[in-house]
Specification:
single chain, 111 residues, mainly beta, 5-stranded mixed beta sheet, 3-stranded antiparallel beta sheet, 1 helix, 9% helix, 43% strand
Length: 111
């Protein structure tokens, strides 16, 4: 499976809520009008018991990351193009966020 991420949005959660949830943020990945991915960023103290990446019954790829990795993923989505969700849907499933090959120094211009 290879799906290009064309849009994203996210939710940031307060440190403590009535549910005592372990989440810091959830980032939603879109291909046109279809959600293709849901990335959950988990506070480090809760990171021990997370699920490996999987695809749900709606075809949405679910992945979990540490809260500290949130800026890295946002930077990738803002500054790289194209970015894809790539992986294998049948067991054993695996998924990653990836770019394609690009020239070194692409996009930078001298001051």
């Amino acid at each position: 499976m290879l799906k290009e991420i064309k849009e994203y949005d996210y939710r940031l959660y307060p440190q403590y809520t009535t549910f005592q949830q372990p989440y810091f943020a959830t980032l939603y990945l879109w291909d046109d009008d279809t959600m293709i991915g849901e990335l959950t960023f988990i506070n480090s103290g809760f990171f021990k018991n997370i699920s490996p990446p999987y695809i749900d019954s709606y075809g949405v790829v679910k992945m979990s990351f540490r809260a500290e990795e949130f800026p890295i993923v946002i930077d990738m989505l803002r500054n790289e193009k194209p970015v894809y969700v790539f992986g294998k849907e049948t067991p054993p499933t695996w998924f990653v966020l990836t770019t394609t090959e690009e020239p070194v120094g692409e996009g930078e211009t001298p001051a």
